[in-house]
Write a structure and sequence with these properties.
By secondary structure, the chain is α/β, with parallel strands linked by helices. The protein folds into 2 domains: 141 residues, Nucleotidyltransferase, domain 5, CATH 3.30.420.40; 155 residues, ATPase, nucleotide binding domain (Nucleotidyltransferase, domain 5, 2-Layer Sandwich). It is 43% helix and 17% strand. The strands form 2 sheets. A 5-stranded mixed beta sheet has the order 3-2-1-4-5, with helices on both faces. β7 and β8 form a beta hairpin. α2 runs parallel beside α3, α4 crosses α11 and α7 runs antiparallel to α8. Bound molecules: 5'-O-[(R)-(carboxyoxy)(hydroxy)phosphoryl]adenosine and zinc ion (ZN). 5'-O-[(R)-(carboxyoxy)(hydroxy)phosphoryl]adenosine binds next to α5 and α6.
Length: 318
């Protein structure tokens, strides 16, 4: 039994997963409503909320799984990258539980966690594969050869794909977090209404900041009632440009590297147009795309416990 704890951003999450990847419980307390009025995550507010939620969320995960702490064989916890204060709350809670109960503590890299969301039952996807990791903080193309880790092939030169969704949603006057909102609104809009540019950058990298600026200019030209009328078209066209960039580069890389299989992970992998644009790509169920504890527990199966758990520190940047 592995207890996974995740507090890197604005989800306080804990889960119990078995050694062979069966999810026994997966509890996610989202703080997004708390941050919505600020239009984004406020780090210090997130840390304080994690502090309030982490114990009840862990207890709930154990209860729903029907296990006691004594039955837990290892605790996996996100160590980074993420908001440093938020990470420290989860790490401190995990240290306390591990130390108090004599359970081995496994430090988990959040990005490895996203990849390991694919290793869970009932339909595990095993390496090797080429992986697009697209979240609020990262946009990476990864060569995944084994369960233990990955090699970075490309990254974003500016904004992450999820960040582009969130900033775009803000420009369109939609709520936070914006990805799911744009996804929903785009279904009623015309993706060809606006021709937003997709930056062509070398190698396997990505760039989204120009796209965001293009949306800003398009929105600025519209009077408030015009924006109201064009909002769905703008959302559809904007999403289409992001998806074209993500899917295009991923397929290009797969062809150049001769990868037989492609997978998508991270919050943006929940996007319906991206999933449709890469119909052959392996993808975890929607609830495992956005941050959760099950993916952290999953990665902890493939990481060694720390020899000096109380000395573990969090890191903000990968
Ligand atoms: O993986 P995640 O939960 O947290 C990070 O590690 O960043 O990803 C969150 C990101 C946010 O930017 C959110 O807007 C985006 O994933 N997202 C989506 C969708 N659902 C969540 N983006 C596009 N379409 C969606 N359906
Ligand atoms: Zn994440």
């Amino acid at each position: 039994m592995i207890l996974g704890i995740e507090t890197s951003c604005d989800e306080t999450a804990a889960a119990v997963v078995t050694g062979d990847g069966e999810i026994r419980s997966n509890v996610v307390a989202s703080q997004s409503e708390l941050h919505a009025r600020f239009g984004g995550v406020v780090p210090e507010v997130a840390s304080r909320r994690h502090l309030e939620l982490v114990s009840p969320v862990v207890r709930e995960a154990l209860d729903r799984a029907g296990v006691t702490l004594e039955q837990v064989d290892r605790i996996g916890v996100t160590r980074g990258p993420g908001l440093i204060g938020a990470l420290l709350v989860g790490l401190a809670a995990a240290k306390g539980l591990a130390w108090g109960s004599g359970i081995p503590l496994v430090p988990v890299d959040h990005l490895h966690g996203h990849v390991a969301s694919l290793y869970l039952r009932p339909a595990p996807v095993d390496p090797p594969f080429l992986c697009l990791l697209a979240s609020g903080g990262h946009t990476l193309l990864l060569d995944v050869e084994d369960h233990e880790g990955f090699r970075v092939l490309g990254t974003t030169l500016d904004d992450a794909a999820g960040e582009a969704f969130d900033k775009g949603a803000r420009l369109l006057g939609l709520g936070y977090p914006g990805g799911a909102e744009i996804d929903r609104l785009a279904r009623t809009g015309d993706p060809a209404a606006y021709d937003f540019p997709v930056a062509r950058v070398p190698n396997f990298d990505f760039s989204f900041s120009g796209l965001k600026t293009a949306l800003l200019y398009a929105v600025r030209e519209l009077a408030p009632e015009e924006l109201e009328a064009r909002r769905a078209d703008l959302a559809a066209s904007y999403q289409h440009a992001i998806v074209r960039a993500l899917a295009g580069r991923t397929l290009e890389a797969a062809e150049r590297l001769g990868a037989d299989r492609v997978a998508i992970v991270g919050g943006v992998a929940a996007n319906s147009e991206l999933r449709a644009a890469l119909p052959d790509a392996a993808a975890a169920p929607l609830e495992l795309c956005t941050d959760n504890g099950a993916m952290i527990a999953s990665a902890a199966r493939y990481t060694e416990p720390s020899a000096e758990p109380l000395r573990l520190d969090a890191y903000a940047v990968a």
